[in-house]
Amino acid sequence: MKRSPFNDGWQFREKVNPFAELGGEVAPYTDIVVPHDAQIARERDPNGDGAVAYFPDGAYQYRKLFNVPAELAGSRIVLEFEGVYRDAMVYINGAFAGQRPYGYSGFTIDADQFLLPGEENLLEVEARSGKDSRWYTGAGIYRDVWLLTGSDVHIPTNGLRVSTPDIDAEGAIVEVEIVVENTRNRPVTVDLEALLANPAGAEIANGTARVTIAAHTTSVSRQRLYVADPALWSAESPALYTADVNVRFEDDPIDHSATKFGIRRLQVDPVHGLRINGETVKLRGACIHHDNGILGAATFAAAEERRVRLLKEAGFNAIRSAHNPLSASMIEACDRLGMYVMDETFDMWTSGKMPNDYSLHFAEWWERDVEAMIAKDFNHPSVIMYSIGNEIPETGSPEGGLTGRALAEKVRELDPTRFVTNAVNGMLAVMDDIKKLAAERGAGADEGAGINTLMSGPGEFMNMIGASPMVTEKTAESFGVLDIAGMNYLDARYEIDKELFPNRVIVGTETFPTHIDVNWQLVRENSHIIGDFTWTGFDYLGEVGIGRPQYLLEGEAPTHGGPFPWIAAWCGDIDLIGNRRPASYYREILFGLRTAPYIAIQRPRPDGTSFYAGPWTWSDSIGSWTWSGNEGRTLTAEVYSDADEVELSLNSTSLGVAAAGPRNRFRAEFQVPYEAGELIATAIRGGERAEVYSLRTATGVPVLKIEVDPGVPDDRLVFIDISLADSEGRVFTDRDKALTVQVSGDGELLAFGGADPAPSSNYAGAAHATFDGRALAVVRRTGSGPVDFLVSADGVAPVETTVAGLHYVEAL
């Protein structure tokens, strides 16, 4: 079927009571373009829930008027929604056309029965969000919408599936599975022509099969095509092939479908671990939420591509979608750029975590939602495993064993080519027992304590529980239904299970960022442990302040989460606008991807306070040696290095040598009286000076600097980095300014903000302050012409740039 974007021409408003409108209280609609996050521009409630970043609950209405050409009468017309959050209700010309409770599943609406060809038609969508998740979800039509049109004999949505069941050094068998639907009142016979093209676009294989489809049914055709000397897909070499299928009736083409795919072989066992194309791979993983920072939940292909690229540049080779299926555009980016994917189904099954969450719909909808995820993922080589859940309370019970087995077998039935895991939290599986133990030990885990509160307690307590026979016993069945045992914060089990369950393969589905040195050593030294997924790769909205540094006065106790106006979790290796934080460089060194040291400086501690860091908290540090107003004050410099020792010098004066490397957790600390200039760290290997890294103080008068991100191929969005810098580009991280931006020409401002985890303004306006001297503007193109961008601030000269127009219009 012909697939066309259906994102323009929408209107939106907060849902109103129709009886109120009868009384004259008419709420106006606003023109918008989807993808659209209905919540991100709303005013936050200081008395609201920090789990959802203090955004209020809401219900929303969308509408779109459109014409259906008269010549489409009798044609097949389908609407495809990639995601509507949440409880989507769809109406066409006033008639109920369909629904989808789960906010992360793509779904289709058979629209032709409701449409009036040759006339104007009204499409309406309603959605809501509130008390249904433990993080910021956004709301509304936040992913792409498509219009599919075709003949009464056609390939339906996701009707083309490609797999590579047989691969050796000489060639590969590519199985092309084609579903053909016939909505006629009589049987029809068609020819299906399949063509394969290599990554360069040259045709390399083809085949034709004749298929008869009975009236109002579907038929499946499978063609096995041989590809000689295939280029194998991997994260290091993401080679993509193309499969094209033409449907011909009496030699006339009546439908067409195409997909990208990769040729690669997956194997997993406790001796070799995970093998991709015969080579053992360790997963350097990042958990990510679905929001895109200052864009909120709106899912733009360019933003997803940028996120994958930044994660890969930071050293990751795998992502886990936490805790819901990834967008199609992000998986496509993982295919192109080379990133392994663990796609996850649900955060809950039948046991709810929030009053209005998906557990209310699980029993009725889970099979259809699993089907939707796998239909989306099947052709994508980046997806190597499915997770059937995250921290599911039932995993410690026989009922959970039954549900887990049903989910795992459903996944295998739909896609036997990939592995099944489940992100099991052993502490949650024995929660009732933990509360009793915690109370006995005075840990304060009363009956209202949540899992995150318990996990922020002492690490030795967590390890004791995770390694206990109680967890072994209660998780036995839930782990037993899996191909790979996913473990959240259960690193204490890694080596124990090698003896208890010699056939068990383990992946750290979620781990503390502060434990990466210990965890990665376990991954490297044990073949049955295939990787580690840190919480988190990118900072995200909601679960506010779980990674925040806390400065406590005497007698104060640390708290879980951050008060208003906190908006972000503040635990990502990369911040909300895409800048790497110190933990990211530390991780890169541990992964063996960086030999140069890295210097991070702890922010000056307020007088009379002590510093508290929870398990998701990195030190409160940034990579800067610009600290005006602190001259003579002693600052703590952290130096990360895999070398045995490092030397730190300031303005050519040595401050001494300290141990680093594995024996010192890859980290040395120095106390440095602040003085402007250059701070240099030198790695010392075997007594010899080796790699160096330096920080220099920003000097002179700050100027505004703007830089257009060149790495995003989808030109609908333009990402513009803004900083306060000196003449050599060094950022003034010690001062921030309120900025104002203006966009003219063929563009409009979509989002503007900084990485501040507790901002005073939202991201929808044209004014926002920098954070640590940086900000980001995201501009949406409204045409194919150039876009003019201007940024200004008090006390500095404004600066502007023009982003060239497009050479094509299709992306709009």
Structure description:
Residues 274-434 form the Glycoside hydrolase family 2 catalytic domain. InterPro entries: Beta-gal/glucu_dom_sf (IPR036156), DUF4982 (IPR032311), Galactose-bd-like_sf (IPR008979), GH (IPR017853), GH2_Domain-Containing (IPR051913), Glyco_hydro2_dom5 (IPR040605), Glyco_hydro_2 (IPR006101), Glyco_hydro_2_cat (IPR006103). Belongs to the glycosyl hydrolase 2 family. One of its GO terms (molecular function) is hydrolase activity, hydrolyzing O-glycosyl compounds. Residues 164-264 form the Glycoside hydrolase family 2 immunoglobulin-like beta-sandwich domain. The protein is α+β, with helices and mostly antiparallel strands and 812 residues long. It has five domains: 2-150, Jelly Rolls (Sandwich), CATH 2.60.120; 160-261, Sandwich (Immunoglobulin-like); 282-430 and 468-538 and 573-587, TIM Barrel, CATH 3.20.20.80; 593-623 and 627-696, Immunoglobulin-like, CATH 2.60.40; 703-803, Immunoglobulin-like, CATH 2.60.40. The protein is 15% helix and 37% strand. The chain contains 14 helices and 47 strands. An eight-stranded parallel beta barrel has the order 22-23-24-25-26-27-28-29. Strands 3-2-4-9-6-7 form a six-stranded antiparallel β-sheet, with no helix packed on it. A four-stranded antiparallel β-sheet has the order 1-10-5-8, with no helix packed on it. Strand 35 (645-650) and strand 36 (653-659) form a beta hairpin. The longest helix is centred in the middle third of the chain and has 17 residues, at 398-414.
